[in-house]
Amino acid sequence: MILSDDKWRLSRFFLPLPFLLLLLLSACSNDLGEAKLITSRANVNIEKGKEVEIKYTENGIPRIKAFGHTVTRFSAQKPYLEFSDGIILRFYTLSGEVENTLTAKYATMVENSNEMTARDSVVVINQKGERLDTDELIWDEDRKIIYSNSFVRISTGDEIILGKGMTANQNFSDYVIKSISGKIKVKTSGLE
């Protein structure tokens, strides 16, 4: 059988049509949740920086400096920064002196929430040399406080206080431990 040019063009068009329909129907088998998961993975990691310093100022005066070896900004439903190789956070007085320092091995900051969560070997040292050690600490920038619901250890010049949970002002000069589990008096030696 010999086909005319018009019939040949039509048969070339209709021959792949069943295959295209089959492909189209099989492509629609993914559910909406799976599609969202795939697109969220594709757009999650948008920026990554090394040796990053972030400065917060009030009326042009530096108030806080955050430093991270590796900082990644994730674009998710709530965008956030991740300090995966640790963070150093310094709070400054109006005269430019370091008021206190916060360090941790890991931290996250959710954008537009003004909260930072520091985890793993969190240490805060204030101007008086008092030291807070905990596994997790949250800094609430709006309320200008730091707090923890984890085990805390506060070392002062003459005692060590152990407890669970604490709240302090962000410069760590005034603090309250929620549940004190022990106090150890430190005796200084006269051999210095």
Give an overview of the whole structure.
With 192 residues, this protein is an alpha+beta fold. The protein has a single domain (45-185), classed as lipopolysaccharide transport protein A fold (Sandwich). Helices cover 17% and strands 55% of the residues. The protein contains three helices and eleven strands. It has helices at residues 5-14, 17-27, 32-42; strands at residues 45-58, 61-74, 80-83, 87-92, 98-104, 106-110, 115-126, 131-140, 145-155, 159-169, 175-185. It has a six-stranded antiparallel barrel. Strand 8 (131-140) and strand 9 (145-155) form a beta hairpin. The longest helix has 11 residues, at 17-27. It starts with a helix and ends in a 7-residue tail after the last strand. Mean pLDDT is 80; it is low at 1-15 and 19-29.
Considering the chains and any ligands shown, give keywords for the structure:
3 helices, 55% strand, 11 strands, globular, alpha+beta, lipopolysaccharide transport protein A fold
- Rg, rounded, reads 29 Å
CATH topology: lipopolysaccharide transport protein A fold
Total number of domains: 1
Question: Counting H and I runs of at least 4 residues, what is the number of helices?
Answer: 3
The main β sheet shows up as: 6 strands, antiparallel, barrel
Helix content: 10-25%
By DSSP, the count of extended strands is 11
Strand order of the largest sheet: 2-3-6-7-5-4
What is the CATH superfamily classification? Lipopolysaccharide (LPS) transport protein A like domain
CATH arch. level architecture: Sandwich
So what's the overall shape?
Answer: globular
Q: Secondary-structure element sequence?
A: HHHEEEEEEEEEEE
- Quick one: CATH class? Mainly Beta
**Contiguous runs where pLDDT drops below 50 for at least 5 residues:** 1-15, 19-29
Mean pLDDT: 80
Oligomeric organization of the protein chains: single chain
Distance between the termini: 111 Å
How much of the sequence is in beta strands? over 45%
- Secondary structural class: alpha+beta
